[in-house]
User: Fold this.
Amino acid sequence: MQRLQKVLASAGLASRRAAEDLIRAGRVRVDGRVVRELGTQIDPRKARIELDGVRIVPERLVYIVLHKPRGVVTTLSDPEGRPTIRELIHDVGVRIVPVGRLDFHTSGALLCTNDGEFQQALSHPKREVPKVYVVKVSGAVDDTALERFRQRIDIEGRLTKPAEVRRLRIEGDKTWLQITLREGRNRQVRRLGEAAGFPVMRLSRLSHAGIDTEGLKPGAWRHLSLDELVELKRQYGVPKRVRAPGSAPAAPHREQRRPQQRARSGTSAPGKRRKANAPGKRREANAPTKKTRGAPASARRRGT
Assistant:
């Protein structure tokens, strides 16, 4: 179940605030009844939703992983004018939002979707969804110092869960660590480094819920595979329905009247195309005809 204004916003018809105005104005019907109450819960897959008498068709659900580069904000808009992930995922075809956040200076795996239940499930601390980071810190981290990274720290008046930390290698006065978190607290890895006395120099997320960015260049994205979606559903219960990426075309935001569209465009009904346009029936421009097939090549070039 989702709030009505969220369903309208997810369909790309308006922002959440503008969708609330549409509801208050009495322009939205659910199953034939005008709804003016904000926060009304509906099932967008079962309810018939109409805006100004035109039915709204839910978008197909999309799940992607983006290799977020450093120097990009994990939002769809930024009041300071900094680059945002919107510029990297604009060609997905539907409006999607990030699952959690990555800092401006942090790169790596960022899940994005238009499935609200999926987003909430993988973001909720009770699910303890693993997020794996590779971290470069200033200083040589010995075994004693390594234990300090595993200590709980206070963030905004609440203690964190212990992090899973292992040392990858020491390079002079720099150390590479792998840190696994099972919660999403604000700047948690960087604060761990500060608390342990080893400032973070570089930070990248290797994976989120087991989904990594292997083969993806910074700024590139891909759809989650069927196997990945099946595994996420097995472990975390989402997505509720698993479909192969690209198995169904994107649904239009509004229900289309196909006969009228055909009449306006002047196209004929499917199956009425001329044979000349059928796939595999086109003749190459220089292909010989029956009249010229047996003629010399020079004659065929003259068209005689």
